[in-house]
Specification:
The structure is a homodimer of 786-residue chains.
Chain A (H helix, E strand, L loop, with lengths): L8 E2 L2 E4 L7 H7 L2 E2 L3 E3 L14 E3 L3 E5 L12 E5 L8 E5 L2 E2 L6 E10 L4 E9 L5 E10 L6 E10 L4 E10 L11 H8 L2 E11 L2 E10 L5 E11 L4 E7 L3 E10 L4 E13 L4 H38 L1 E4 L2 H18 L24 H13 L1 H13 L1 H10 L29 H17 L3 H21 E3 L5 E6 L9 E2 L2 H20 L1 H6 L4 H12 L5 E2 L4 E2 L27 H6 L8 H7 L6 H11 L10 H11 L3 H13 L15 H15 L10 E2 L9 E8 L2 E7 L3 E6 L5 E6 L2 E6 L4 E4 L24
Helix pairs in contact in A: 4-17, 4-18, 5-6, 5-8, 5-18, 6-8, 6-9, 8-9, 8-10, 9-10, 10-12, 10-14, 14-16, 16-17, 16-18, 17-18
Chain lengths: 786, 786
């Protein structure tokens, strides 16, 4: 857990006031900078010490063998793993003849600040070398939102109280030695030195010195280029020299400073990669990006960055009063969600964004089910781009469906490039709900933006091919009910089941949405071979979907038979996460839930359940849900709020919000949990704000828990920026764009909001139908006291 | 498929009349010799060409890593693989200066005969060397049933029509180069050269020359010794010389023969291995065994072998009239089943015996469910020994149960030494029925032999610890029915289910048998901590076991919900075995059955089903059972016979009988299918003979299909040899031991049979309740026309 005293709560910053070497890894993730194309972990400028060095390019991966003790038909043989690419962040410093290394000498002060409005990571350090020379270092790092291929570092050293000779080494380093992460020696071998040098060059322009390194991956054959350009300002004589080699390039700066004088290095970085383009094209792309950065200048890059973010925050900010930690956390979350998706531009958004190598850098359903719902209402273009990426991979998904004996397209459970990379099918291939989640994201985009642009550009093919998949996965029984057998829902402690409710309702929605979309897009539908008869089968199946219910217990079953399974013995299994201490066979057969599953269905398909149903589901499943997944708390916050347990919703919200800031899962060092970060927003907006838009009608039913005095957020809805300002007693809806208006339901009551005419209404009373539920022993969320 | 014309049908032999190099591998398995301790594949004397060289010692294995693309708790990390040990079979021959190699020169004649009464593999070859020299070779090979550590080869070369110089090389060869079988380079590396030399010595005794090689495995650290002693007889001058090195020893014999003269080599071989004993002890053990062999002489070994087999056949032979292939096959089967178990002596009996490296040389439930039922009634001491091996591994099984969060003992799905080595848990760990199968074998031994010897020596601990396992696996529902959730039955196309009928009835029988055994053995039970209360819980659960039944379709469900699953599309999936063409996810969720499962329950638990139930089960499941496992046909023969489909029973019997002789599964080259071989006997005795002894009463209800004119078999029952002689019209029961008598049921009627007073009774009429069922398209067994 990240010590709170080193990270004081601040509404627009994440500030680290001292350096704790044990927390380096998680701080590197928290302080990661990215624009969705380039990702820099928050490594120290000098490279060491580190938790894990990390520089990533979206979708730049290496292949590795997937081994099986007993292989089976359809098991993917090739995995994909994100590559730590050429590191351009590094600026090493020597004070006289001693390296600046925080582990030696005396670190008088060290502070790092991630500024959520500036989009920069700044660092200040005051250090006395072992020989007694005192210096101050200030660095500012950014990965540009505006210039997609560009990052930059400004590094300033001041001689504090005596003259020193300073040597700076500004570097590009490829094939950094990595801490070993895989047990399998073959895998480790592949990833140990994944980059093969293609070209290395020194460049020298008037007033700057730099280099370019071009590499390709050994197996996947992708090519990348990294370039740097160094500008140096210092009083007196300065020697600047650049050398390059296969796996490194180094600009060395030497100067002598008097006390009070400064050496300033401005380092522009540019990255490019391609599976198709030639070496010269990549090299030139990097040179061009560097030229653009130089033209803009460091101050210009800072200004652009701030302007980009100001526009984002204007339409996306969430203001919270009464819980300062949640206030900070939701902005931190929105910032990182934006970083993950902003400039991905038809590449996927991985579960860790570009903040770390966790989950091999793979994209999961997290993107469509957690991240895109946030981006759809705050940065819709990024959401559409991520979905266009899915549409671009439809041929891989079609091929996978064929391999599995299915129709349509089966999108991968986990992937970088588009091919299934899951090595354990019961929790991979069988989790077909990912297809419904993708389809739902396509449909959500249309509903929220009112735009058909995505539907005609990739969206329809996704809807149609996933509908076809469902038709081949499902079957009708003798009574005409439509079932889906042999699949795994969100709860990874219950696998390969019949009629998982979340999956079934998702499939039905997918089928019905596809049918409606084909009516809207008859020509496009025809070009995909969709007949009217096929659409009719979709409507038939979608309208007849089975939703298992236990008549004796009067509660829905997460899947057929779930409530008849043996109960989990919580007392005998006190160690979490359970999957590290119990075999799947035992988890699968018992009533123990890893993460919100039926509760996810309550949230996604609110109209499929009565208020009584929802209360019963929360009551039954809460004591059986262990939250061993970071995806769970946000959804539990939403359903707790929906059934009137507002304090519990607040507790879950807090948990979702602090998964990374407090390192609750002890793996923030591998990268941030994008879904949980996004979940913070979902918990606030859908949970406390009670927002739903199923069926195309925007609905709110906000309630604040004890202690929260205000929640204000803005969403984009059909080109309108709607702000919702909630206090314990009333809520004000305002359409912020001139001349705009929209109609919504407030607590079931229709309201039209026109720009310049905010509408204030009283919050509806809360009447929970059942008492606050218990959680499994030791798994209640931390209670937010006031 | 093995060409029938090269293998003419013979009641007491398997004879190969010409050498087909494409069939070498399967012939090596068919012609394998073993005594259950040493196994020799039927490799040619000169070692090459070969399908797969193979020399095995029961339970001598190497460890290898089990890799996982995504590992999970409780997955075994270490696998066990049978090792091809030092090969002592090799006798190379040079004719003048040319090696005798059947691929060169002209092979005028080549015949091999496996003699089922002699227990030998003999070979005769007539060959003209590329230089035109004609020789005859006769070799006779045996692995002694009587002298457990001993094998021997007699090798005779005759110069046919001209003088030749002959050079013989009689060898021991360790670490033979093997065809690569594993894709995983790490695994291949481990198994490429598994033996490390510990000692190599030449021995020279009066009149003989030989050598000993001692090796140990690299990882598992087992030690083995192989010794040879060569005796040479030839006219005129003979030079004999022995050399030894780390991985080989060679006795070279050189002589010159005139036309018509013979060179005769007698080679005694001895093997020993141990995990505990010292190098000198092993070396001496081998020397001692060689001394015993020399003392007995080759003729003596042949005589002993014949006597041993005569005694076996006297009590075990099955005589079939009307189907010569089945006649041959059942004797072939009994011979190999005997070879697999005869002298295993508290080691396991692998699924392939010691005939090949298939399934890594692992032991599965095949042993207890197929092989031991045959041995129990024909060679009961071997059955008891195999079960004592299980009892000896109970501590490993207890530890595995702890690992899985269970009580009692969880015996491994696959293993050599006793530890679970399964790398795919849904078809490994989850197949808990193996525990009920082992318990059933213990109980069967007591019922059939009337002896409590095994029960007090390991049997009770097996019954008690498996009963405890079931109590921790099962649970009661609100109505008091006892269920078992999350397990896999015999059908590997349906996994991780609730209430698999075979498993449930097996568990119930296990619980009840354990409770009764504890009443018989109160002191022993107390020493295992069994209380009267614990026994009561066993009886309660065992008496309340759930057996799912579909009221609408009026048929039992193989497991809960089975008959409600989607149907398999046989037309769309014409390629078998299905598991090579379809993913588990699709197989698991549909009504497609790999192998007899519910039909196995009909056979094992005949009293749990009415005649109507049985007819319905066969009718419903036959069209859904694809027989992708060699374990299936025998059981389907038995149930077909039971419900009156005698021709179908005959067809299935024929399939079970010829799985290896006709290489029906295209993998006989990896080793023989012991379970299917044993199944031939089961199909004849339990199927056509209608034998059951559930509840301790021996019952018969024999019927012969059209075409079979006689079936006569002998079983041992309570120390009595009972022969049953069946014709289409009547059956004669005879107690063959002087002064003995026993009571049995014939077609439900009680009969007492006294020695010297055979009882002849009419066969009961057959009335099938339903028509002959169909099988999946293309999967009907070959019909036995008459």
């Amino acid at each position: 857990m990240i010590a709170q005293d080193a990270f004081p709560v601040d509404p627009w910053q994440v500030r680290e006031t001292r350096l704790d070497l044990d927390l380096l890894g998680s701080a590197e993730s928290v302080f990661a900078l990215s624009n969705g194309h380039i990702g820099f972990r928050g490594n120290l400028d000098e490279g060491e010490p580190h938790g894990l060095p990390g520089t990533y390019l979206n979708s730049f991966y290496e292949e590795r063998p997937l081994p099986y003790a007993e292989a089976g038909y359809g098991y993917p043989e090739v995995g994909q793993t994100v590559v730590n690419v050429t590191d351009g962040k590094i600026v090493r410093l020597f004070v006289d003849d001693e390296p600046f290394d925080v582990r030696y000498g005396t670190l008088l002060a060290h502070e790092r600040v991630l500024d959520l409005r500036a989009g920069t990571l700044t660092r200040t350090a005051e250090w006395v070398s072992p020989a007694g020379k005192r210096i101050r270092v200030r660095s500012t790092r950014l990965v540009s939102f505006v210039q997609r291929a560009v990052a930059a570092v400004e590094y300033v050293v001041e001689a504090v109280d005596a003259g020193v000779r300073l040597t700076l080494q500004s570097e590009l380093v490829a094939n950094q030695a990595m801490p070993r992460t895989a047990d399998d020696p073959r895998v480790a071998a592949v990833l140990e030195s994944p980059l093969v040098c293609v070209e290395h060059d020194t460049t020298r322009l008037e007033g700057s010195s730099g280099a370019t390194l071009v590499h390709r991956t050994r197996v996947s054959g992708l090519q990348m280029a990294a370039g740097m350009e160094n500008h140096v300002h210092a009083p007196g004589r300065v020697d600047v020299e650049t050398q390059d080699a296969e796996d490194w390039a180094r600009t060395t700066v030497v100067c002598a400073l008097e006390a009070g004088q400064e050496l300033r290095l401005t380092k522009y970085l540019a990255y490019g990669w391609s599976a198709l383009r030639s070496r010269p094209a990549l090299r030139d792309q990097v040179a061009g990006a560097l030229a653009g950065a130089r033209f803009t200048g460091f101050e210009g890059l800072l200004r652009e960055q701030r302007e980009y973010l100001a526009e984002f925050w204007d339409a996306a900010d969430v203001h919270v009063e009464g819980d300062a930690e949640v206030q900070q956390a939701v902005r931190f979350a929105l910032f990182h969600v934006l970083q993950a998706g902003a400039r991905a531009e038809q590449r996927g958004i991985p579960a860790k964004g570009l903040t770390g190598p966790g989950y091999d850098g793979h994209i999961f359903w997290d993107t469509e089910a957690y991240v895109l719902p946030v981006l759809t209402y705050t940065a819709p273009r990024a959401a559409a781009d991520a979905l266009r990426w899915r549409a671009r991979t439809v041929d891989d998904a079609r091929q996978r469906a064929r391999e599995l004996g299915l129709s349509g397209a089966a999108f991968p459970w986990r992937t970088i490039r588009g091919q299934e990379s899951s090595g354990y099918w019961p929790a991979g291939t069988a989790a077909f709900h990912v297809n419904a989640d993708i389809a739902a994201a396509v449909e959500r985009y249309r509903v929220a933006t009112g735009s058909l642009e995505l539907e005609t550009d990739g969206g329809l093919v996704v809807l149609v091919e996933t509908a076809r998949l469902w038709m081949s996965l499902g079957h009708h029984d003798a009574q005409g009910r439509w079932h889906v057998a042999g699949v795994t829902g969100p709860d990874e402690y219950t696998a390969v089941v019949v009629d998982n409710v979340f999956t079934n309702l998702g499939a039905a929605q997918n089928l019905l949405a596809a049918a409606r979309a084909c009516v809207r897009q008859p020509d496009l539908a025809r070009s995909l071979g969709v007949t009217l008869e096929e659409q009719a089968t979709w409507r038939d199946a979608g309208g007849a979907v089975a939703v298992p219910y236990d008549e004796d217990l009067r509660v829905h079953q997460q899947c057929e038979g779930f409530t008849r399974r043996p109960e989990w013995d919580f007392a005998a299994n006190p160690h979490y996460p359970l999957l590290l201490h119990s075999p799947y066979f035992d988890l699968y057969r018992k009533q123990v839930v890893k993460q919100a599953d039926l509760q996810m269905a309550l949230f996604w398909f609110p109209d499929a359940f009565s208020a009584q149903d929802k209360a019963r589901v929360v009551d039954y499943y809460e004591p059986r849900t262990v939250r061993d997944s970071s995806l769970s708390a946000a959804v539990q916050a939403i359903t707790a709020a929906e059934v009137g347990h507002l304090e519990l919703a607040h507790d879950y919200l807090y948990e979702a919000a602090t998964v990374d800031l407090r390192d609750l899962h002890h793996n923030t060092g591998d990268g941030l949990h994008m879904a949980s970060l996004a979940g913070t927003w979902l918990a606030l907006v859908h949970g406390l704000g009670g927002m739903r838009d199923n069926g195309g009608t925007l609905r709110f039913d906000p309630h604040l828990p004890e202690g929260l005095t205000r929640l204000r957020f803005t969403i984009r809805w059909h080109e309108v920026k709607l702000s919702v300002d909630i206090t314990p007693e009333e809520v004000t809806y305002a359409a912020r764009d001139h001349g705009s208006s929209l109609t919504l339901l407030h607590a079931g009551q229709e309201v039209t909001v026109r720009s310049g005419e905010p509408v204030t209404l009283p919050v509806a009373p809360v009447h929970p139908l059942l008492p606050r539920p218990a959680q499994p022993p030791g798994r209640a969320p931390v209670h937010r006291d006031h």
